[in-house]
Amino acid sequence: MNMISPVPDAETLCRQATAFLDTGRPGAARPLLAAARTLDDTIPTLVLAEVRLALLDGALIQAIEQLDRALITNPSHAGLRKCRADVRYGIGDWEGAARDAAEAVVAQPSDADAKARLGTALLELGYIKEAIACMQEALAAAPNLVGCREALARALEAAGDIEAADRVLTDGLARGPANVTLFNAAIMLNLRRRDFVQAVAQAEQAVLAGIADATTFALRGHASCSLGQHDQAVQAYQEALKLAPEDQHIRHLAAAHGMTSEGRRAPADYVRHAFDAYAGRFDAHLASLGYAIPSLIADVVARHPKIAGGNALGPVLDLGCGTGLVAMALGDLPLGPFTGIDLSPNMLAEAERKRLYATLREADIIEDLSTQSSQWPLIVAADVVCYFGDLKGLMHGISRCLAPEGWFVFSIETLLPDRDGVLPGNGDWALLRQGRYAHTHDYVYDCISEADLRIAQNDRCVIRREAGADVPGLLLTITPVAA
Fold it and tell me: 224 near 430, Cβ under 8 Å?
């Protein structure tokens, strides 16, 4: 007697495809999903699996469109809402992510995953108190939500409760099994607290547990460097590079410790890669950090004798112009035309959309300054010098291109000692864990003087907010010595 195998329904095919996706086999999932679509193209399980495939293919727009269509039919489906929240979060649409996560919570009030997503999105939007409450509720119901625990620690730190943030991470590590995400979050917390000894100890625990990744070793390298343990730092960065040889950020950190040919500045490829990926959400993210350097530069420039006297000033050279935030801040002053220089084509594209610049050039600012024939009455650089350790070349380039009575207005990040009063780095500047350099004030003053420049104005400022704390710096205005 012949046995006829039952034809699987669409839901069964989708579950099988999802299992393949869970085990990293998208090729096996595709034909199953194609077959499921011929049977029923409306079930949410199919949409969720197809969105996962679209994301693997890098097709973000396709993923969003699929979810949009599915939610028209199933507006209260918590799984679809959570999925679209994840996609929106990934592209920096935190308001959209929060709305979808909130709808998922409404649909399923007991869903800890949905509450965790809502809390994370609220954190990005700056609603710290609400984010903490939401994520605490999620963890109370599901203590092993690692991403939620890490985000809650960040939220508590932003609220100024460092001890509570530490407890959240410590509790997660104690629950086991050992999780590298939590270890890395704990190490980062201690780096921000400038407790480099504890950061090293936690990195070593992750290594002993056999779960350390490239980030763990990179953080271990930074902590060791901050303790003056150069050999240990080099060893840690070597391990990080073995695990992630193409990671531009890790290569940048390693370069600063003499392991590659660069090190006295951020490599051009690293800067270009980082800001190309960041361009679409750059303005919104800096606003969430309380970034005020462009407006502070505008306040300084407004005091320029020509501007104060009611006259125009220009042309203006904007070094590392990014998306054009400085030109926007200076827009109410009689300035221009503006020329912007940046390494990132995506950032330049964002600046082009603002229509504030007469000229935009994709170039390295040191190389550009060395080849220019123009002298500029005003040069500005907001949060750009932090990508250079050695400032001598930059200052000599400025000296070459600044008009006799010209102004160069720029910000620097102040190098602070650790808990024991020891300055990280070489005593003049140090590469911090974010890939930016901080400088001592004396070193900056010396570089200015050696380039035949002088300080006309010297203002202490807050560069930005980071993990709830002010990042101190200087806003300097320098002119040629003869001016």
Answer: no
